[in-house]
Amino acid sequence: MALPPALFTIGYEGSTLPSVLDLLREAGVTLLIDVRAVAASRKPGFSKRLLAAGLAEAGIDYEHLQPLGTPKDGRLAVRAGHPETMRRIYRTHMTGDAPRAALGRATSLAGDRPACLLCFEHDPAQCHRRLVAEMIVAETGQRVVDLVPGGG
Questions:
Q1: Residue 136 burial by CB count (10 A; 0-12/13-18/19+): exposed, middle or buried?
Q2: What span, in angstroms and rounded, lies between the C-alpha atoms of 95 and 4?
Q3: What is the CB neighbour count within 10 angstroms for residue 24?
């Protein structure tokens, strides 16, 4: 039996869209799953429409699963330097129907093809995308690979 594809994660903090796209292509990613609560960004190219367009040009599909985003209180906790508080808030958030349904969708998508979870934070240990990845691999047994783009 074939092993499922790796599940990738990436944060775009301190990066450019071209550097992120290059890394995704090099890794063989065919689907980017945006797990931001708010798919807008002050960084050029990372707002939802521009990101989806850039990905499409690179031959990578895009899906925004907004219910997998961190609630505002969790985002504020990370900004204040309290990732442990964010993790607690996020785990509570994930008991809701919409987040659980979105997790099911992400699990299904990630088990079928090389997919990557995208959020902002550079360090996956400080980001909820690590929690999402852990929930997915608990179901799929996939290996998680954290992609780290260069500066820009």
A1: buried
A2: 26
A3: 24
d(CA 85, CA 75): 10
Pairing of β 7-11 and β 31-34: unpaired
For residue 113, the 8-state DSSP code is: S
Do the beta carbons of residue 106 and residue 116 sit within 8 Å? Answer: no
pLDDT of res. 149: 86
Q: Cα separation of 152 and 109, whole Å?
A: 30
Rounded Cα–Cα distance for residues 14 and 96 (Å): 32
Closest listed residue to residue 126, CA positions, set 83, 82, 91 = 83
Q: Within 10 Å of residue 46's Cβ, how many Cβ atoms?
A: 22
Cβ-contact 36, 119 below 8 angstroms: yes
Q: How far is CA 43 from CA 12, 47, 48, 61, 133, in A?
A: 9, 8, 11, 20, 24
| Domains contained in the chain, CATH given | 7-147 (3.40.1010)
Residue 2 above 70 pLDDT?
A: no
pTM of the full structure: 0.94
What interhelical angle do 72-79 and 83-93 show, nearest 10? 170
